[in-house]
Amino acid sequence: MHLVSFVKRSVVLRHTLSDGSWHYDWLVQRSADPDDLVPTFRTGHTRPDQSRSFEAEQIGDHRALYLDYEGSVSGGRGEVVRTVTGEILSVTWGGDVIGLEIRYPDEVVVYVGEIVESGRWNFTTR
Question: Of 43, 56, 75, 110, which residue is least crowded by CB atoms under 10 Å?
């Protein structure tokens, strides 16, 4: 018998658009099923692993392949480079509150996200 251990991940991608502008996309894997889509937040110029408080816009969920992908984005939408990957230790996802505990290479960060308005979140760390 083989037991398979599945680690849920959090990834921050720097997404540079074809016009040269850029932003960070934060992918937060909440399901152990690698075929499930990954909730994604646009955080502007704020890296979630380097900030204690930030706002984020929840955008369309991404395919799990973006947890590992770096390179050109189809349709001339620029390119992405992974800036940091973390292991999600715990996740609580309610209607208007998100709780995350993520182990990054240098520290463990606990996030609490509260919805501000439809699709907009405010995250703080503890």
Answer: 75
The span from the CA of 111 to the CA of 101, in Å, is 6
Contact present, 111 and 125 (Cβ < 8 Å): yes
Whether the CB-CB separation of 100 and 94 falls below 8 Å is answered with no
Residue written as token pair 């499930």: 36
Could you report the per-residue pLDDT of 44-90, keeping only the tens digit for each? 999 999 999 999 999 999 999 999 999 999 888 999 999 999 999 99
Write the pLDDT tens digit of every residue in 84-98.
999 999 999 988 999
The predicted model scores a pTM of 0.92
| Domain spans of the chain, in order of start | 9-125
CA angle, 47 as apex, 119 and 51 as ends, to 5°? 95
DSSP E strands: which ranges in the chain?
9-16, 22-28, 38-42, 53-62, 71-72, 79-93, 97-103, 108-117, 120-125
For tokens 């960070």, what's the residue? 24
**CB–CB of 57/41 below 8 Å?**
yes
